[in-house]
Amino acid sequence: MSNDRNSSRIPGFYRLSVAERRQLLRLRADLTDQDLRTLDGGGIDTTVADRVVENAVGVYALPLGVGLNFLINRREVLVPMAVEEPSVIAAASNAARMVREGGGFVAEADDPLMTAQIEIVGVDDPDAARARLEAASAELLALAHATLPRLADRGGGARELEVRTLPGRVIVHVHIDCRDAMGANMVNTVAEALGERVARLARGRSGLRILTNLCDRRRVRVQARVPARALATESLDGDAVRDGIVAASRFAEDDPYRAATHNKGIMNGVDAVVIATGNDWRGVEAGAHAFAAADGRYRPLAVWRDEAGDLVGQLEMPMAVGTVGGTLHAHAGARLAQKLLGVTDAKVLAMIVGSAGLASNLAALRALATEGIQRGHMALHRKSQPLAVLEPPRPAQPSAEGSRS
Between residues 273 and 398, which one has the greater pLDDT? Predict the structure, then answer.
């Protein structure tokens, strides 16, 4: 086991008991006794749940694990992952170990721009309306900026106005730098505040006013290089495995049916981190799949190639996540996940989430190119089966034994 208390490389972690794993995390992430108690309860109880959602009747829990071996932009990262599917965390950790041999993940993220959409209907001359709106862009951006004074104080705010025309309507996009917030509430506030003024300028009626989850100006890009030798299995050398992964990537690029499952593998890792950190996984999913189909054909979010004998993967996708606001106010588990990550910057969190997605994709493609997806997955799936809820005891019957499912 590594002696470096800052390393995410912890061989044999899965062999430890839950208590031993927690004590190791306590040392690595400076966890408190309260943090460890949060792990027992999941970070939320029924009282808190009743304040977070309507008609609350209880709390539904997911397993929280830690993705290991992640080296991202030369920084060691323990990656909290909340997911119900066996093998996701183990597979991502194993893939991250392979990527370490090539220097780790290299990632970058755009500024955190979210987009407010303002729809104007009943416009007689869309082109003339567009010209008037563009001429008034400085006024509209100032109004948007004034709507969010606290965001402006933190260096964020309205950055750009864009006008689009569609049959029978004009669409105004206001691009807003949300800093370390995901930004949905702020963006919706701007959309509603500008709606009537935009409608008057366009000489139409205000329609829908809400954010778009296709946040294509807020993308994350991740690259991973894996030496072929790190891909080898007991029965296949690394070059053969590399070529199989590249072929599987090509398949996803050529066929939307394969691309859908290829991208689902990416989202296994992405969603698990997004959920653990209290972010909007539905919004991230919506943006990812809309981006994948943005040119009219559904495509993979990550591709893999042979470069000078190494396997090189590249992922690009929208990533709207935040480290302030939202669930973090109420959910101790989300705050603990952020503490494990050691980040408060939304762009850094986006890079970590994207790296988890690319790792999950690599793990799935390597399994498909070698032993098949079921062997490792079902081994871990069977491990959970003895925990299935037993049937209620039946009344004793003469000469009959009780049964269990």
Answer: 273
Tell me how far apart the alpha carbons of residues 186 and 174 are, in angstroms, rounded to a whole number: 12
Do the domain assignments include residue 169? yes
- Taking the mean position of all CA atoms in its chain, how far away is CA 56? 26
Confidence of residue 397 (pLDDT cuts 50, 70, 90): very low
pTM exceeds 0.85, yes or no: yes
- Of the pLDDT bands very low, low, confident and very high (cuts 50, 70, 90), residue 380 is low
What are the pLDDT digits (tens) for 42-73? 999 999 999 999 999 999 999 999 999 999 99
Would you list the DSSP string of 328-372?
GGT-HHHHHHHHHHT---HHHHHHHHHHHHHHHHHHHHHHHHTT-
Sign of the Cα pseudo-torsion (270, 271, 274, 276, in order): negative
145, 177, 212: which is the final residue of a domain?
Answer: 212
Helix (H, G, I), strand (E, B) or coil at 5: coil
Give yes or no for a contact between 88 and 68, defined as CB atoms under 8 angstroms apart: no
> If DSSP states are collapsed to H, E and C, what string results for 110-159?
CCCEEEEEEEEECCCCHHHHHHHHHHCHHHHHHHHHHHCHHHHHCCCEEE
User: So which residues are the catalytic ones?
Assistant: 85, 264, 280, 377
Do 258 and 160 lie in one domain? The reply is no
